[in-house]
Amino acid sequence: MEKKKIGNSVFYISLTLIAIMAVWSVAFNESFTAVSNAAFHFLTTDFGWLYLIAMIVFLVFVVYVAFGKYGKIRLGGDDSRPEYSNLTWFGLLFGCGMGVGLVFWGVAEPLTHYLNPQGVEAATPEAADFAMKSFFMHWGILPWANYAVIGLALAYFMFRKNKKGLVSSILEPLIGEKLANGWLGKLVDILAVFATVAGVVTSLGLGTLQINAGMKHLFGIPTTLLVQIIIIVVVSVLYIGSAVSGIEKGIKIISDTNLYVAIGLMAVCFLVGPKMEVLNSFVNGLGQYIGDFIPDALGISTYGDNSWLGSWRLFYWAWFIAWAPFVGVFIARISKGRTIREFIMGVVLVPALASCIWGAVFGNLGINLGEKGIVAIEKLQEVVGTPEVGLFMVLQEYPLGFLLSIVAIISLCAFFITSANSGVYVLSMLTTDGDINPPNNKKILWGIIQSVMAVGLLMAGGLKPLQTISLAAAFPFIFIMFAACAAFIKAIRKEKV
């Protein structure tokens, strides 16, 4: 009875909080926008240094546990083995954690840095180098180390210590069982639910805008609210259906298929694109990324202008921290039986390298057009101004552009379905007292809530403010994740290795 009561309290309080936020953001959009912008500006201005340090701390933590004496410990019993093949596991965690963002920003972000760089002249070879180095920093090893903190700690406590599948379970060694199962634990889980809902809803909305933009660019289908609602309804049926069918069936099938589609899309784009420039850019970008890693990761001006840093790096770090509970819980759920070292290598190194390869291929599709003078800089500025259509505008300049754009839309839909059904699964876990196989009625309910909120926010034009307020609300997760690192190390020191 007590278990049900605690699970229900997290569910009802989270639902109430989300309903209030949804009504505020839709009905009183102006005040919601003002408050969210002010909160985010305050946090990134006054605490920008903390975001930078936090990401380095998370990286040091995962390196320490992966390559120290605890690396051989399994996330489960000593005789347990992984539930999923390496390819399926990678497809699930990549689709959940990064796929959506990479499709959206793969062309647009490097091009933006190329045309609006820091410290070098715009639209020059030096600006192209800056663009790649910045992209690698934003999508490389640090975001994945951030995801691994919650993922590793929760997988350890769930599968090796038989704890609930809740973020609050991680903190038990530090705060004790009573507080972890009491008001403090519930507060942590409610924050995790809110961050997950806000993150998935804004991504669902932004993805809908990009799919609509692609359809207009290719087929002349108008960019209207009705079309966007139809897209959300179709995607919703698919992601709710796949979530209900479970990880082993629906989620796995979509994830596996999309992994092959995304790899195929990237390979063909490499072949029709500027091959030598992509290879040089990848190698040079990797060298600059590694060589300048610490100065870039901790770079913040004392007296100068930090507006670029706030708009890009700090925004990304806040966004990835906001996604950490969602992605972390899902990665934990699919990682039973792996060793700690295997987990870190698979969750941090492999996806980071894949993200950098993706950025080199798609980023140079856009930058090459400017460097070779194929497309006027003014036209490329349009791509930067409307990032949701940027991918399709750039692809049309290359052979097979129309076909590649259609494949890109399919891949985008699949990545969004993977993210959304992972989100439904995590929300259902967090609101059923950590049940790793939550009931279907919860999955359906959370799926509908996400879709209705996305439609409401598109009607109000309020996607950006919700994203911004979610970043501000996720600020406490910096400290929760610090605590998770400490709790994990405290617990693992009792292991006999």
From TrEMBL:
Source organism, top-level taxon: Bacteria
Entry protein name: BCCT family transporter
rRNA-binding as UniProt keyword: no
Keyword Transport: yes
UniProt main location, coarse: membrane
NCBIfam families reported in the protein's UniProt record: bcct
Lineage: Bacteria, Bacillati, Bacillota, Clostridia, Lachnospirales
UniProt membrane topology term: Multi-pass membrane protein
Membrane-spanning residues: 9-28, 48-67, 87-108, 141-159, 187-206, 218-241, 253-273, 314-331, 343-362, 402-432, 444-463, 469-489
Family: Belongs to the BCCT transporter (TC 2.A.15) family.
Subcellular locations according to the entry: Cell membrane
Organism: Faecalicatena faecalis
Keywords tagged on the record: Cell membrane, Membrane, Transmembrane, Transmembrane helix, Transport
